[in-house]
Request: fold
Amino acid sequence: MYFYHRYNGGKPQDYEGLHKSAEKGLPVVAINTTAGTSAEITINYVITDEERKVKMVMVDKNSLALISVNDPELMLSKPKGLTAATGMDALTHAVEALVTPGAYNVTKKLSIGAIELIKEYLPRAVANGQDIEAREAMVNAIFLGGMSFNNAGLGYVHSMAHQLGAVYNLPHGVCCAMLLPVVERENAKRVPEAFRNVAKALGLHVEGKTDQECAAYAITEIEKLSETVGIPKKLTELGIQEKDFDFDYLSKNALIDACAPGNPFMPTLEETIALYKELF
Ligand SMILES: [Fe+2]
Reply:
């Protein structure tokens, strides 16, 4: 935060949204230790406002790190749960950046490359943290996926995941992983053709298959991968009960999250509430 105060003034809240800073910050050397968020190579960063219980999404060209270090050896001791969650966050970046209307040829190739690597190597990295080949492949995957969403944008999985993480203090990657099939099922009803590439990257021979078949395959594969790496399916498994869940507050904030405009369609408040209900 210091460099924003030093060079741009104000408080963190002033920078929520798109390109709010006037000046470049101090040079940042970002050393990645999680292989997931891609914050070290993108213009995005996220800060939780604990008073309002929202995650503020800052998209700011002045926040790009000067040097980014992605060394898989720094990730060998990462625990299983964190490996799974951050890996599924990376998958969410690649998938959302592939189905968004903002995707174009270069970002599509980057996303496809990321998804292929994550499908093959995330289960290995979770099963054996010392598997340096799997760790390196995951580092490459987040680099590809990060470059993709940095240019193409994200979508409503992230909009909803930010609220879950902020209000219930859940790991971002777990929120993304739980919401990914839920939101993509809705996206697939509107833009099934966008899922051909997702299905192909996840191993389907798409020739002769309909767009709907591709979408169904892709979503099932995502669910299988999530299960393999130990992501819970329902919020009750994380101690959150439906009767205590603040559907209205989370849904209203999801609608105004900075990632929402990247989604193939804009859900209504009622549709957002229905999507959160699927997590129970
Ligand atoms: Fe993310």
Summary: The pocket of fe (ii) ion is lined by residues 37, 89, 92-93, 158, 172, 176 (CB under 6 Å). The chain has ten helices and five strands. Residues 121 and 133 are 8 Å apart (CA to CA). The mean pLDDT is 94.
